[in-house]
Design brief:
Strand content: over 45%
Distance between the termini: 45 Å
Largest sheet: 15 strands, parallel
Number of helices: 0
Radius of gyration: 17 Å
Shape: elongated
Amino acid sequence: GNDITATNGYLNDGTLMLEGGETITGSILNRAASTVIYYGAGTYDHLEAGVSYMNLTFDDPAGTGSWTVGATQGNVTVELDLNDTSGHFDLSDKNLPVDADVTIGADGALNAPGASRTFTVGGSWDNSGSFDAKSGAVTFTGTGTVTNLGTGNFYDFTVNASGETVTLGSDLNVDNDLTISAGTLDTADAADYAIN
């Protein structure tokens, strides 16, 4: 990727593709249904476009890319969808609210934040890859389906979705606590999904 200099700022109304090692001078405002895609095959110790996204995607065709939220960067915010198609994304010790869906592709790997941090999902969860929950909670705050066919159990699984329904699309494996504080967890009895 090439460096970006945006003296007066850069408005992203479409798709911005970054390898991950570029230098960005100036600010980036991700608007409306915009997407930032990180596609590099290296190891990157921060998210070059900052921590505020509409749609955020990691898609390294080689499957070797690895991105970690930088030590000096704040919490990551994704207002629509988070997609880890291919590559490894580590939240380190940062909070992550995702207002819509989280998708982990077959070649994707997502490391959640630790126990003292929050990871909320406002829509569906679809894991076909690898998820490391560490000792943290994933809290579902809206209507969606949870399908966890990849590797990695949830540590704490919470439904806090007043007036909403979270539906299982696969067996649910929780290593520690399952909490329903508001809303409904639908076990989709027609499919007889197990909660372990």
